[in-house]
Amino acid sequence: MRDRGWWLVVALCGALMVMAGAFGAHALNGTLSARLMAVYETAVRYQAWHTLAMLGVLAWRAARPLPGQRLTLGLWLAGMGLFSGSLYALAITGVKVLGAITPLGGGLLIAGWLVLAATAWRRQSASGNT
Fold this sequence. Notes:
Helices cover 82% and strands 0% of the residues. The relative contact order is 0.13.
C-alpha cells in the first residue's frame, strides 16, 4: 500500500479528533467559559477539516502521485499539531502564552493549501490543460 504511514497518521488524526470532540462535549461542557469552549471547538473544527483534506490528498495521490502532495500533508500535520494543539492547551489550561504558537500553526495550514494549489497548477500546466 502506497503511503501506508500517511494513511495511519490520518486515521489517528481522525480518531484523536473524535476523542477531542467527545471530551469537549462531555468532560469540558459546563467547566469552561463560553469563550474558552469556543476556542476548544475551533481546534476540533480545524483538525476535522484538515483531516478530511488529508484524506482527499491521499486519495488523489493513490490515483496520481505528484511532487508536492507529501509536502502538503506534512505542512497540514504540523499545522494541526501547532494550531489545534495550542488551542486545546489554551482552552484547558487557560495559559495565554500557548496562544502565541497558534499563528505559527495557522501559517503552516495556509502554506499547505498554497503548496496544494501549486501542485495542482503544475499538474495542469504539465498536462497542457488550462
